[in-house]
Task: structure prediction
Amino acid sequence: MRDEHIIGMIEHAPLSGLSESELAKVREHAGLCAECRRAFEAAQVSTLLLRERAAETIEPSPFFQTRVLAALRERQAAGEVSAFRRLWNATGALVSSMAATVAALAILTLFAPDSPPTTTGPQEMASTYNSYTAEEVLFDQSDATAEQMSYGQVLSTLYESGE
Result:
């Protein structure tokens, strides 16, 4: 019995939950082992303290129920108003930025200068603004003997007005 300490048995079950044979083993081992005796005494003291504390009845102060119900009503009344406020706090920045973006796009759409294309096809539009076509750029189907354009020619092609 000296090799088997009872501390594990005491920690896993309350003293009141132990059977008579287990309590006899605990008492026998506690008589032989000082460490287990201290653990057994601590378990007895804690059991006694818990029983005494559980036996006490605490009376609430006068008007406790009235104060609790009043506080609950105040919290519910404030909760109805604050639900919208909490929603606005969470999404206010997003809604504001979306409204500003819509306003900016509306202003740009209504007051931007119109530059209608002279032709309707995409191929004709590309040739009006520059001398390259999509096939020439993507597939390099330009004339191999043609000279390279100078920077001035490139800039004038990019920035020439659509008159």
About this structure: The mean pLDDT is 78. The longest helix spans residues 64-111. The chain has seven helices and no strands. The CA atoms of residues 85 and 112 lie 38 Å apart.
